[in-house]
């Protein structure tokens, strides 16, 4: 029994010695690989130098491109903000255009009522109040009326329907407004239709 235990104790020590010998003693093949590795190291050094040079070039290019990219991002952000601002300011443009015929109809109703007629006097006052309420409501959303009677003709805001000879009027002056124009936040929704004095 004691002999068997002694053998078991000796066996792991002997195996450990064999493993150490295997690791420590290099074979001929290992020496060749090491010799080959020395040649590969030189090639790897060359590749490393080339890679480092390429990295330097790329870093220089990146340094040149970075300010341009930042400027481009700022421009894109500015354009997006302007688009959002325009969309907010002019979102009611189509709606305003749909309301303008209603305003025109109310104005024509007021013009058709005779001031001397007592029967239509109350009706005229009611229509005037309705028109005032509508225009005040539109004014809260920056809708402005273009009524250029007596002003110089402005092709950006006025549409000339005809030119007439008016001796007392200055040339290119609006002498009659056939239909008022409207602006939304300074942008023309509809030009004023006018008659202009000839030069």
UniProtKB/TrEMBL annotation:
Subunit comment: Homodimer.
Keywords: Chaperone, Coiled coil, Cytoplasm, Stress response
Location(s) in or outside the cell: Cytoplasm
Record family assignment: Belongs to the GrpE family.
Coiled-coil residues: 41-68
Record keyword Chaperone present: yes
Major place of residence: cytoplasm
Function: Participates actively in the response to hyperosmotic and heat shock by preventing the aggregation of stress-denatured proteins, in association with DnaK and GrpE. It is the nucleotide exchange factor for DnaK and may function as a thermosensor. Unfolded proteins bind initially to DnaJ; upon interaction with the DnaJ-bound protein, DnaK hydrolyzes its bound ATP, resulting in the formation of a stable complex. GrpE releases ADP from DnaK; ATP binding to DnaK triggers the release of the substrate protein, thus completing the reaction cycle.
A Pfam family that the UniProt record links to this protein: GrpE
InterPro entries the record matches: GrpE, GrpE_CC, GrpE_head
Polar residues: bias regions: 8-21
Organism: Marinobacterium zhoushanense
The name this protein goes by in its record: Protein GrpE
